[in-house]
Amino acid sequence: MRIALFITCFNDTMFPATGRAVVRLLERLGCTVDFPTGQTCCGQMHFNTGYQRACVPLVRRFAEVFAGYDAVVTPSGSCAAMVREHHSRVAEISGDPALPAAVESTAPKVHELSEFLVDVLGVTDVGAYFPHRVTYHPTCHSLRMLRVGDRPLALLRAVRGIDLVELPEADQCCGFGGTFAVKNADTSVAMCADKVRRVLDTGAEVLCAGDNSCLMHIGGALSRLRAGVRTLHLAEILASTEAEAALPARAGEGVAPR
């Protein structure tokens, strides 16, 4: 099976450790992972902001770069949802007669990490060890568009040493929503405050999710409160072994709250 890593703009720029964790994890499970260097943005930000035609070159590039792979794995529910749910719409309005077929052959092969592990590889126990109290936030795209369900939780429950606690009102949005947090800052902050309150109620050391964008949003609020709760992508927990039991440092941590 030819597997490609689609890292996404956000992870490449802000959280490169997540991509490295995906590769370590998949290689530990016997996979060979390619990283196509021609990959760029999937167009999610443009599409969600109403600039659908501006997505056309990005969708075309995505279909070209990832053509020929058996599977494309990404540590982002939101970007996986963009490719699978919206690339076809962009192809329809592109005016390029070849693009719909290119998208149709590529988009269905894109998998969010937990989907790939559980549905394609057929594993839940990935050999991880993470002796910390963890709670899981299901991000909106993974919950409502991809419908990953309990796949991430099944993977986390199989991690040795973990103390996994349920997050109250887990299905509620954290308020990030990409440009929503910029355009509707007051509403976004209020939604995040509700989410932070629920995270603190769990007594968890670590908040886990499948999208670093949401973790950055919630983590920023936790940092400003000096709450002592870390944020960590699902991939980094699943890639952890006994040799890496200490919590790894994350981008942006240690910055003084504003």
From TrEMBL:
Residues 3-83, 134-218 form the Cysteine-rich domain. It comes from the Bacteria. Pfam families: CCG. This is (Fe-S)-binding protein. It comes from Planomonospora alba.
